[in-house]
Structure formats: structure tokens, C-alpha cells
Amino acid sequence: ALVAAGAKPLGGRLGHGLGLSLTEWPSLSALDRTPLREGMVLTLEPGVEIAPGRIMVHEENIVLRAGGPELLSSRTPPELPEIA
């Protein structure tokens, strides 16, 4: 829906590791070859440019478990507040 409205997907990474520092390896990008392992905590951060110089990034935090990823973030409500 955002792309259909004219937003442009951001290139580069889609997230990163999360640990003692806010931003850690791995960097979730096509160039990072770090193996993903059980127990890793990652952020998923897809982003779009909604206007020249204005970007919107949505972040979810997950931990990789043996049975699949576990969502750590609270679910975002369907309607996001507008910040003017």
C-alpha cells in the first residue's frame, strides 16, 4: 500500500543484531554472510522514503528459537498515530 502511494523502499539493510549495544552485528543485508543461530536477538527494520528526505522505519525485535522466531515487540496497532 505504501509503495502504491508513492513511497520508495529503502535499500541497504533490513535490520541488525541487538545485544549489549543498541546496534550490533549481524547487519541484515545481502552483503552480510553471518550465519543466523538459535538464541540470536535481531531487529527487523523495513523502511520506506515517504517524501524526499523523510523516511519511515518500522522495527520489530525477535529472538531466534529452535521452533522459529519469537516476537519480542508488542504488536503495533493497526492505526499508527500521526506526529505533526
Q: Give the overall silhouette.
A: globular
Q: Which structural class matches the secondary elements?
A: mainly beta
Calculate Rg over CA atoms: 15 Å
Count the strands?
8
Order of strands in the sheet with the most strands? Answer: 3-2-4-7-8
Question: What are the low-pLDDT stretches, counting only 5+ consecutive residues below 50?
Answer: none
Oligomer: single chain
Distance between the termini: 21 Å
Helix content: under 10%
Please give the largest β-sheet. Answer: 5 strands, antiparallel
The mean pLDDT is 86
Strand content: 35-45%
- Quickly count the helices: 0
Structure description:
It is built from no helices and eight strands. With 84 residues, the protein is mainly beta. A hairpin with a 2-residue loop joins strand 7 (60-65) and strand 8 (68-71).
